[in-house]
Amino acid sequence: MDIFEKIKTDKGNLGQYQKEAHGYFSFPKLEGEIGPRMKFRGREMLNWSLNNYCGLANHPEVRQADAEATAQYGLAYPMGARMMSGQTSKHEELEKQLAAFEGKEDAFLLNYGYQGMVSIIDAICGRNDVIVYDAEAHACILESLRKQLGHATSLVQKTGGGILVITEGVFGMAGDLGQLDKIAALKSEFSFRLLVDDAHGFGTMGPTGAGVGEHFGVQDQIDMYFGTFAKSMAGIGAFIAAKEEVCDFLRYNMRSQTFAKSLPIAMVIGLLKRLELIKTQPEIRERLWTIVHALQKGLKDENFDLGCTNSPVTPVYLSGSVPEGTNVIMDLRENYNIFCSVVIYPVIPKGQLLLRLIPTASHTLEDVEYTIKAFSEVRKKLEAGKYIASKIAQVS
After folding, report:
1. Phi, psi of 242 (to 5 degrees)
2. Is 11 found in the same domain as 103?
3. Nearest in space to 226 (alpha carbons), one of 147, 295, 167, 287
């Protein structure tokens, strides 16, 4: 059979909805200056779907640094992978500053977040090692982890391998925090290394923005701290911070980086400016949390279910079917000019809908007030069964 024949009948979990969803629910085009108000299909939308937590995407100092660096170096320099011909002093400087910010000996720049995380695990772990992964920060994490660590310990005693515990700082869908203090405490009972993916916590959590490890006061117990630039830094790329020997091992053994072109120096210089602003202008993070607290308190006061979020990620849980969920989003966009994301089955259980809001330092309290009012009206329609209809025009 032709290898392409299968795609005619099996388009994948997401691809099966391509025809109906493309351009609206998936791959939507948000146009204009990055910020709380952008255009979608030619109309201005109040946007709650960008991970621009600190509002740095269009910060004047960031724009200036990006522009000047691009004018000086272009977007091609340096050419080649860092191991071969793509190393610069700016790349090394950014790594040094990130390591110091995270309280680690060293840091290693990565081209992408998801790819980087997968490649770290691939490089560090071998066939004899055991990975214990925290799929979600559930209430019984301590008991569950202790049980899994006991099982993992028995396995590595036979294989001679080691144990790597992986969790997230902020769980990006639900907004709850990985219980790093409780996980770190188990180091006194079991021998394991801890890898924390803090994509949503870096720059937003902790007294200085160093992340969820700092928030819990256990940053020194994190053996490998992973952060991305695509969230609070409004850039691209990622990094891993750890002991020098660990970072050196990854530099020479991460295949995804060994064969990847170096991050353009213009982006690296821009990232240095972004990190400087996070470190020297705490008012940026304070503005973010002002919006976060106002949005989450306002929604809770209207009896919306936000789950257990303790971060800027703001999930709004509703009851409804998949068709109702799509009509809720259409109503918000078409009649309220609000752009946010919806999460439906199979990502969450049947009968549940999750509207995911990402507040930023660029939003205003007026944006918050308007959104809460709109959500209250939409919930009334949902509870009245008006979104069961197939066309949104029937509930406008």
Report:
1. -165, -170
2. no
3. 167
| Buried b or exposed e, range 57-86, using 16+ CB within 10 angstroms | bebeebeebbeebbeebeeeebeebbeeeb
Domain that holds residue 89: 60-280
| Same-domain status, 177 and 32 | no
Entry field: residues in the chain: 396
Helical residues (DSSP H) of the chain, grouped into ranges: 6-9, 18-21, 60-73, 89-101, 113-124, 141-159, 180-185, 212-216, 244-253, 255-258, 265-280, 282-301, 322-335, 365-383
Shared-domain flag, residues 388 and 247: no
- Contact (Cβ atoms closer than 8 angstroms) between residue 121 and residue 164: yes
Whether this model's pTM surpasses 0.90:
yes
- Distance of alpha carbon 153 from alpha carbon 142, whole angstroms: 16
H helices of 260-302, in order, are 265-280, 282-301
Q: What is the pLDDT along the chain (396 residues), one digit of tens a residue?
A: 788 888 877 766 666 667 777 888 888 999 999 999 999 999 999 999 999 999 999 999 999 999 999 999 999 999 999 999 999 999 999 999 999 999 999 999 999 888 889 999 999 999 999 999 887 655 556 688 889 999 999 999 999 999 999 999 999 888 999 999 999 999 999 999 999 999 999 999 999 999 999 999 999 999 999 999 999 999 999 999 999 999 999 999 998 888 899 999 999 999 999 999 999 999 999 999 999 999 999 999 999 999 999 999 999 999 988 888 889 999 999 999 999 988 887 777 888 999 999 999 999 999 999 999 999 999 999 999 998 865 554 343
* 314 DSSP β-pair partners: 357
With the CA atoms of 203, 112, 274 and 218 taken in that order, what torsion angle do they form, in degrees rounded to the nearest 10? 30
> Which CATH number characterizes residue 23's domain?
3.90.1150.10
267 & 288 share domain:
no
Angle (nearest 5°) at CA 107 between 103 and 108:
165
Number of domains composing the chain: 2
Separation of alpha carbons 230 and 198, rounded Å: 12
Q: Are residues 146 and 165 in contact, defined by beta-carbon separation less than 8 angstroms?
A: no
> Which of 265, 280, 295 marks a domain boundary?
280
